[in-house]
Amino acid sequence: MTSALPAQSAGTIDVGGAFTVPRLGFGAMRVTGPGVWGPPADHETALAVLRRAVELGVTFIDTADSYGPDVSEELIAEALRPYPDDVVVATKGGQLRPGPGQWRPDGRPEHLRAVCEGSLGRLGLDRIDLYQLHRPDPAVPFDESVGTLVELRDEGKVAHIGLSNVDVGRLDQALELTPIVSVQNRYNPIDRSSDDVLARCEERGIAFIPYAPVGGQDLRVGDAVQAVAARHGVSPVQVAIAWLLARSPVMLPIPGTGSVAHLEENVAAAALELSAEDLELLG
Which of 67, 83, 131, 211 does the annotation list as catalytic? Predict the structure, then answer.
């Protein structure tokens, strides 16, 4: 890999001493069908998006067994195996999918074990680089869910543990049990409800992986983002990604898309430099 690759324009991040990747990853949720359900409308395009991401220098690919379900992981394996040595595939477990657009947490130890095994098989891996608890399950003691991931790590099936959709209390609780190398929460210029979680990640040297950089499928960009985008002649999504990169050195954005053109646009945001005036306007 050379420094000329677009995804490296924002530099790299050391994820909890576990691995180092360019500070712009790819979220593979949207290569699936509508409602994150079933196969994509165009199978070959989905494969092309994943392959193009790596060509552009992206080496951190984030997915989950619930994306499809199973579909995203299967596509990643089909597109990228044998994986380049520098590619890190992170996945998640702990959500059930009753139907399109429907999500239900399941943090039972037996469920987490089963879906981790399933992810290993679909991805064609002996060990998952980063395995994340997708969402705390209010019906299951949090320590039991996290403890299962610790067991999977101790058995060699998982290399490192991350969390998703957690507050500071849950993060601190998990840190009492085991090292946590990443937290993946919704975060963007409009929704900053995880500011306190980001601050804790900065304190502890934990990578913060923001999803939905402009609100996800419910597109919300705000007047400030639109104004800065117009000033630079770029898209609001690019401004949101650049803002995230400027917001904190522990930030590892994972913008996702099912379009090669949009992927290239997103990755180009790694080189977008926002001025002090831009950052003041964005807040």
Answer: 67
